[in-house]
Amino acid sequence: MKQITILGATGMVGKSLLRKAIYNRIKVKVLARSKEKLQDFAEAIEIIEGNYFDTDKLKKALEGSEAILSTIGPPMVGKLSKDDEVSYINALAYIIKQMQSNKQSRWISISGAGVKRTNENLPLARKLMRVSLMAASKSTITIKDRELQLLEESNLDWTNIRPPMIKEKVAGEFVADENKFLGMAVDVNQLSDFMITEMTKNEWLRNAPVVGTK
């Protein structure tokens, strides 16, 4: 893997991905609203300064990469306006179209254990998590359900990872399953390892594993 793009690089998972990519000597491009938040990595990466909803900046961030890794998501608390929800969904629709135009195929992103695939029958634990997420932020479920549907409808080699809570220093073994709920949290270091490995291992192509540290 010569070059990747990371979207959402300033967050907890994004920074963990950056460290691992740099350690593995992978060239990294990121899209970030503020270069200052990535000052510690500035000499090792290419930063496209801009907004996730700016298609011109997105286009530049995607160019030349063999895989796109995204940790982008709406706020986990509160409800967005319909226009804001549509902006998130339209941004992914643009990315899919642009990747197809660029002949790029590998996409790896994060949603959540409460997010549902088309016609998926959720086990009880995930139904309860979905209800809890709907109460905290209905917009998150609305956006991530629709994003997963867009990926399913695309011809990309996508993997959409569905974790529960993401935390630091969670003890246990990383596990992944097509549908089953696995633990109340996932360790951020294990999650980012999984994303980096999955870029080339391709074990979960066109699938949405539910993950956890257990």
List the helices and strands and how they pair.
Layout: E1 3-7, H1 12-23, E2 27-32, E3 46-49, H2 55-62, E4 67-70, H3 82-101, E5 106-110, H4 124-136, H5 138-153, E6 157-161, E7 165-167, E8 174-177, E9 185-187, H6 188-201, E10 210-213
Parallel strand pairs: 1-2, 1-4, 2-3, 4-5, 5-6, 7-9
Antiparallel strand pairs: 8-10
Helix pairs in contact: 1-6, 2-3, 3-5, 4-5
Low confidence ranges: none
CATH topology: Rossmann fold
**Helical coverage, percent range:** 25-40%
Beta-strand residue percentage: 15-25%
What is the residue-mean pLDDT, rounded to a whole number? 96
Task: Count the E strands.
Answer: 10
Please state the second-level CATH architecture. 3-Layer(aba) Sandwich
The value of Rg in angstroms is: 16 Å
Number of helices: 6
- Tell me about the biggest sheet? 6 strands, parallel
**How far apart, in Å, are the first and last alpha carbons?**
30 Å
The SS-based structural class is alpha/beta
- CATH class (first level) name: Alpha Beta
Would you list the SSEs in sequence order as H and E? EHEEHEHEHHEEEEHE
What's the CATH superfamily, by name?
NAD(P)-binding Rossmann-like Domain
Number of domains: 1
Q: Outline, from the CA principal axes?
A: globular
Strand order of the largest sheet: 3-2-1-4-5-6
Write structural notes for this entry.
The protein is an alpha/beta fold. The chain has one domain: NAD(P)-binding Rossmann-like Domain (Rossmann fold, 3-Layer(aba) Sandwich). The chain has 6 helices and 10 strands, in the order E-H-E-E-H-E-H-E-H-H-E-E-E-E-H-E. It has a 6-stranded parallel sheet, sandwiched between helices. Strands 7-9 form a two-stranded parallel sheet. It has a two-stranded antiparallel sheet with strand order 8-10. Helix 1 links the parallel strand 1 and strand 2. Helix 1 packs across helix 6. It is globular. The relative contact order is 0.15. The model has no long low-confidence stretch (mean pLDDT 96).
